[in-house]
Specification:
Helicase, Ruva Protein, domain 3; five-stranded parallel beta sheet; 10 strands; three-stranded mixed beta sheet; GMP Synthetase, Chain A, domain 3; 20 helices; alpha/beta; Rossmann fold; 475 residues
Length: 475
């Protein structure tokens, strides 16, 4: 364990606030995170997948540097979901998070003008040799391996989709690292959808579009994670379509990843959608039992701890949704054993993860529902948690509440609490309204950047159910 006379977590929070600034700390960390140190790992817990992924994507380096400042050593970061944190979020905090995300491209553009250089790309940690293969991901793995061996040969477009924490980012980063070692002269670039958007916004403002196009269209391989970030961004989509066509026409490779199938991403242009589905589209599903066991064994080796097969089996049986959830449970067990100075036994493991078993499973399912619904309507999950009541947000929030009540065992108050601390009566009314509309075979309408869109509600619900049910096929 780390040795520090003062409370290391309090010192860590102070250091993070110092590094990221008070505004960003209040929006993303205050009341929204919980930190726990083990000998080699720092566990970063957040109330939902949206906050967890945003913090990991944007603040991992700051968190690691802050931990190093106060302890004098490097820690591996592990990100986990802790549903109880949802109760501590400020009521307006989701509103501020959505505002921050919406304004982020402009903010980054201003920062780049001041600094004269873009912020560094995220560290590419994924390695193909560390990717555990099973029935839920073997097709995606085979596609990745084929691209590493011969990029742009078999299929010039690969679109990988699946729920949070299933290994999409690991896999496409593994492709980049594989290309780097196998084809050192190849020109490739890895960016997130947000980074591509920020770069495009800056190029327009700085009148440097030609440089931007040279940077992206002359690549041998372009890899974009979280491509659903382009939803609702017409100008970015148009620019990316031209980029896609230029790379494809030159016989080069494009690799994309998203939380949803391209047809389930709201507000994508028909031209862009047709490009996506014309290539190879593969889904990563929830990990099968054998994969979960192997992941736990690998992570235990990384942590340099010995765990009996019975404990491995116990964890693998209880955490089925995704790899991140599984790793978070293991880390909590290891931390408990280190704090108590005891070996990892079945009874210790059961005590350590008792609360996680009770809370995480239904909330993970709710997170899947929120993510699928939000992406379909061109929103973020945080939009559903806000106090805003635009037609699009109100409709998508009502549908998410209806599906949560139908497909989870969560009560009305629990659903309301985890969807932005809404009153339980709000959930009851939303469920009743959507049920009545389904019985009446009504058509729903919502706004998009190109005007109003309408669809039969029953068909819409069916498409959403098929999408999030596919994510959780092992449950």
């Amino acid at each position: 364990m780390i040795s520090c006379a003062d409370n290391p977590v309090a010192l860590l929070e102070d250091k993070i606030a110092e590094r990221v600034g008070p505004q960003r700390f209040n929006v993303w960390f205050r009341n929204a995170t919980r930190f726990a140190f083990t000998e080699d790992f720092l566990r970063v817990s957040a109330p939902n997948h949206f906050v967890s992924e945003w913090i990991e994507r944007h603040f991992a380096d700051d968190i690691g540097a802050a931990a190093r400042d106060i302890t004098g050593k490097d820690f591996r970061l592990s990100f986990a979901i802790e549903p109880s944190l949802a109760e501590k979020l400020g009521k307006k905090q989701p509103d501020r998070q959505v505002d921050y995300v919406a304004k982020n491209p402009a903010r980054v553009a201003r920062q780049k003008r001041r600094n004269g250089a873009p912020p560094p790309s995220p560290t590419l940690r994924g390695r193909l040799e560390n990717f555990v293969v099973g029935p839920s991901n073997e097709l995606a793995y085979a596609a990745a391996k084929g691209i590493i061996e011969s990029p742009g040969t078999n299929y010039r477009s690969l679109f990988v989709h699946g729920g949070c924490g299933l290994g999409k980012t690991h896999l496409i980063q593994a492709i980049c690292n594989g290309l780097k070692s196998r084809h050192p002269d190849l020109h490739w670039r890895y960016v997130t959808g947000e980074e591509f958007t920020n770069d495009f916004v800056y190029s327009v403002k700085a009148r440097e579009q030609d440089a931007f196009r040279d940077r992206y269209r002359r690549l041998d391989v372009l890899v974009i994670d979280d491509v659903h970030f382009f939803a609702n961004k017409r100008a970015t989509q148009e620019e990316f379509l031209h980029t896609f066509q230029a790379i494809d026409a030159s016989g080069k490779q494009i690799i994309l990843a998203s939380d949803a199938h391209p047809k389930m991403i709201g507000h994508f242009s028909e031209q862009l959608l047709s490009r996506f589905v014309a290539g190879m589209v593969v889904r990563i599903d929830s990990p099968h039992l054998d994969v979960r066991r192997e992941v736990l064994r690998q992570r235990a080796d990384m942590l340099k701890v010995t765990i009996d097969d019975a404990v491995i089996e116990y964890l693998a049986e209880h955490f089925r949704a995704n790899i991140r959830e599984l790793e978070g449970a293991l880390l909590k067990v290891v931390a408990q054993a280190q704090v108590m100075g005891q070996p990892i036994t079945m009874s210790l493991a059961a005590r350590a993860i008792r609360d996680l078993i009770r809370q995480t499973a239904p909330v993970v399912m709710l997170s899947d529902i929120e993510s699928v619904v939000a992406i379909y309507f061109g929103l973020t999950p945080a939009d559903l948690h806000t106090s805003r009541k635009t037609r699009t947000i109100a409709l998508s929030r009502g549908i998410a509440m209806y599906l949560a009540r139908k497909h989870t065992d969560m009560s009305f108050p629990e659903i309301g609490r985890f969807m932005g601390r809404k009153n339980h009566s709000t959930v009851i009314l939303a469920r009743r309204r959507i049920s009545n509309m389904l019985q009446a075979n009504e058509t729903v309408r919502w706004m998009t950047p190109i005007g109003e869109k309408e669809q039969d509600l029953g068909v819409l619900i069916g498409e959403l159910e098929a999408q999030f049910s596919a994510r959780s096929g092992t449950r």
